[in-house]
Design brief:
The complex is a heterodimer of chains A (325) and B (290). In chain A, helix 4 runs parallel beside helix 8 (189-215). Chain A folds into two domains: 2-49; 91-151 and 189-324, MetI-like fold. Chain A is built from 13 helices and no strands. The radius of gyration of chain A is 26 Å and the shape is globular. In chain A, 40% of the residues are buried. Chain A is mainly alpha-helical and 325 residues long. With 290 residues, chain B is an all-alpha fold. Chain B has two domains: 2-69, no CATH class; 76-287, MetI-like (MetI-like fold). In chain B, 78% of the residues lie in helices and 0% in strands. Chain B is built from 14 helices and no strands. Chain B is flat and about 75 Å long. The chains are: A mainly alpha (325), B mainly alpha (290). The interface between A and B is large, with 111 and 115 residues.
Chain lengths: 325, 290
């Protein structure tokens, strides 16, 4: 362990020093070149490292994966779209797609509803700040810790034994005659329970973003609606909701991406067993358990395709924003 | 008299009407708190108690609490080393992302060069790319050059995957700085290096702090990158990977799992409660556009 501390101290000093030295050397180097070359190269001193990393870690590997998805499991022979056909016909993959679709619908829906409700309601109570902090805490912790927390909540003991899981204890003591449930084993309940854990982890994020959106709204509008005799619900529906729509869209798309990429919670809570796999965990299994590179790559490409609409939408809204600058 | 009664009536009416609000807020807070409290309480209960009774019975006599679980997890289960590994993954990776992204963001905001628009659009597109699409080729590259299972390898992976968000956030911030500041510096003959280190950086401390804290928590909490690029080696595994292994091998050893999970949560929680403003700032800057 002392060895780790030394390594850490070294990295903390050396990395910034290297990166600053890089700029000093690059500037000196540029001075040796003719003026025209300097003009063309100067900016690349600044974006160069990032652009190179972008190529090495994102662009080229993404293209590489598309190619690998057209090759066989050892990446030696060309098989065309066979991996894709196999994936779409494979029952395990179909389960993963169904589950990811459930994540995609229910995670944004539940997290945004809870987040919006709490953003609006905590604004009206004196302990609002504390309530918001309470909801936000899970956002700061890892999905791995969240998975342990919820596995413990869902812990199952046979009927008759003392239930140590909070949910089963609540169920058996509040509902007379109810049997404890194996929450993480029985499908499709188990996927729903993992999504519940995901809502617990992300609703605070939605709330914070929506809350900031609410604070940015002109209060006069709501006041005048109230003066005109609109009830609270009316005012919310006619004024708050439409004004908040752009923020809600951003939150929903962020949650949709989170849902499609979900991996950690499923991997730690159920390992994808008992039909809880999602696309990301399925791909991981095909790669590291079945060692089928072509097939795993095809799954990764399909995941990318599912995310593509959001990416295009993002680019469109960025361009609109820039043209307004 | 009637006026007073009227206002009291109105006050009562108002508080009756707001009861559902209080109820809803408090119940939601309770639902959000209970899981963490159960974890925390279980982590300081003796093993045999945790295995046989619910954590809520800890509040009835006899009160039995212990720090043994933590001792066992930190020493015998090697979570002390995992904690150091987490630091050694997270801190250098965060420093790298912030500085490299700041260089690029400065160029995107204040320099003209060929391909600028296209490159920035590519970065916006990369904001949502699932890292699964890059996994196999990067892993092969790492195996080729011997970076798999090394800390510099994970730093580079975090750097590569973290850059789009970091550049996006800082570029928006830099671009909002006053143009005059940079123009007059250029007229005085200041180089871009001077303008960056003397003007852009000092005026952007809040944005950089937000990004650094956000990246720190993000990297600390990561499982996937560590799982893949550290290649399952125990001696370099950070907390998230070690906990995942512990779940797989001791899924019912709740006294160990709860204390291990709490060890991994401690640092993000401290960061969250002391630097909440910056952390939330980072999240807002990354999500709310325009």
């Amino acid at each position: 362990m002392p060895e780790r501390a030394v390594q850490l101290a070294f990295a903390i000093v050396a990395i910034p020093a290297l990166l600053v030295a890089y700029q000093v050397v690059a500037e000196r180097g540029l001075k040796l070149l003719p003026r025209r070359a300097v003009r063309a190269l100067e900016a690349w001193v600044w974006v160069g490292p990032a652009a190179a990393l972008f190529m090495v870690f994102l662009l080229l590997p993404a293209l590489g994966t598309v190619i690998l998805s057209l090759l066989d499991r050892r990446s030696t022979g060309f098989v065309g779209l066979e991996n894709y056909a196999n994936a779409l016909a494979n029952p395990d993959f179909q389960v993963a797609v169904r589950n990811s679709a459930a994540w995609l619908i229910f995670l944004p829906l539940a997290a945004v509803i809870v987040g919006l409700l709490m953003a609006v309601l905590t604004d009206r109570v004196r302990y609002g700040r504390a309530a918001r902090a309470t909801l936000f805490v899970p956002v700061a912790i890892s999905s791995v810790a969240g998975a342990v927390i919820w596995r413990f909540m869902y812990d199952y003991r046979p009927p008759g034994a003392d239930q140590t899981g909070t949910l089963n204890a609540a169920l058996t003591s509040l509902v007379p005659g109810a049997a404890p449930q194996a929450w993480l084993i029985n499908a499709p309940l188990n996927s729903a329970m993992v999504i519940v854990a995901a809502v617990w982890m992300t609703a605070g994020f939605c709330m914070v973003v929506l809350s900031a959106g609410l604070k940015g709204m002109p209060p006069e509008l709501l006041e005048s609606a109230r003066v005109d005799g609109a009830g609270e619900w009316q005012a919310f529906r006619r004024i708050t909701l439409p004004l908040l729509a752009p923020t809600i869209t951003v939150v929903v798309t962020t949650m949709a991406i989170t849902a499609l990429k979900s991996f950690d919670l499923v991997y730690v809570m159920t390992s994808g067993n008992h039909d809880t796999d999602v696309i990301a965990t399925r791909m991981f299994k095909e790669l590291f358990s079945s060692r089928d590179v072509g097939y795993a790559s095809a799954i990764a490409v399909l995941l990318m395709l599912a995310i593509l609409p959001v990416m295009i939408w993002n680019l469109g809204s960025f361009r609109r924003q820039e043209s307004m600058r | 008299m009637t006026v007073v009664a009227g206002s009291r009536l109105a006050r009562i009416a108002r508080s009756v009407r707001s009861t559902p609000i209080h109820g809803l807020v408090l119940v939601t807070c309770l639902v959000w708190l209970v899981p963490s409290i159960g974890l925390l309480v279980s982590s300081i209960r003796p093993a045999h108690e945790v295995a046989t009774t619910g954590w809520w019975t800890a509040f009835t006599t006899p009160f039995e609490f212990t720090l043994q679980n933590y001792e066992q997890v930190l020493t015998r289960r090697g979570f002390g080393l995992s904690f150091m590994n987490s630091l050694l993954v997270t801190i250098p990776a965060t420093i790298l992302v912030v500085i490299v992204a700041a260089y690029a963001a400065y160029a995107f905001a204040w320099m003209r060069f060929r391909g600028r628009e296209w490159l920035f659009l590519a970065i916006i597109a990369a904001l949502v790319v699932p890292l699964q699409i890059t996994l196999v080729p990067v892993l092969r590259l790492f195996n080729e050059v011997g970076l798999t299972g090394t800390f510099p390898g994970v730093w580079l992976a975090h750097l590569g995957y973290g850059l789009p968000f970091a550049i996006y956030l800082l570029r928006n911030f830099f671009a909002a700085l006053p143009r005059d500041m940079f123009e007059s510096a250029a007229l005085d003959g200041a180089s871009h290096r001077v303008a960056f280190f003397r003007l852009a950086l000092p005026t952007s401390v809040p944005a950089i702090a937000s990004l650094a804290i956000f990246e720190f928590v993000w990297n600390w909490n990561d499982l996937l990158i560590a799982l893949i690029y550290l290649g399952g080696r125990r001696d370099v595994a950070p907390l998230t990977v070690s906990i995942t292994n512990l779940v797989a091998s001791h899924g019912e050893g709740w006294q160990l799992l709860t204390s291990a999970a709490f060890i991994s949560m401690a640092l993000p929680l401290v960061v969250f409660f002391t630097l909440q403003r910056y952390f939330v700032g980072g999240i807002l800057a990354g999500s709310v556009k325009g």
